[in-house]
Target: tRNA 5-carboxymethoxyuridine methyltransferase
Amino acid sequence: MQDKNFDKLSQKFAKNIYGTTKGEIRAAVLWRDLAPQIAALGNKSLRILDAGGGFGFLSQKLAAMGHEVVLCDISEQMLAQAKQQIDAANTPLNITLVHSPIQALTTEQHGQFDVVLCHAVAEWLIDAQTTLKGLLALLKPQGLFSLMFYNKEAMRFHSLVSGNFDYVMRDMKVKKKVGLTPTHPLYIEDVRLWFNQWQLTMVCQSGVRVINDYLKHHLPPNFDTQQLIEMELLYSQREPYLSLGRYVHFLAKKA
Model:
């Protein structure tokens, strides 16, 4: 077994994730959580690591604000897309592309960072706990660690309300994985325990897609996508909705 590489799925990934309402919700929640905490680090250029960042949706946004970004991904195709978009940007972006597994990143080669992002990566890793702990060595004291992971309990609940009871009884295991279905979803309780063990101080917790994935097939004629995003933001930090988010975003500060 090995960690997932999206080389063969890069075009599908970009279209299915960021070219949809799901992607708009993800971007809205992450930015709502990150923006004030990054601003609180001071009016200065920060060093930011986007670990497993694909084509760098957030990397480009942060670099456009004047920050120095290192974008690392195991997929050569994803980084090729990133380079095309960076080259086409209206203003020069200070982004260094690193083609590497995130486990291979070292302080000797890259130094330490004010912010480390790791979004939609952990659920594809054979050993997420060890890999994420390794990323913390790259984070400066009082730096921000932003982790978004696929929520196994939400995966179960979605299957239950869809009537896929046999799938749930098999602990959501299938003989052949669908391309974009994460192979190693995580439990919220486990990740919270890891953060405590690593002495990270939680500053923000949000569910991502707490409503969208449970919408009925027949929606009201006046259904409005922008209103959906507003409702996602409104309920994303409230229980029980937070724990039903298809993804969960934890933002914490290193001791």
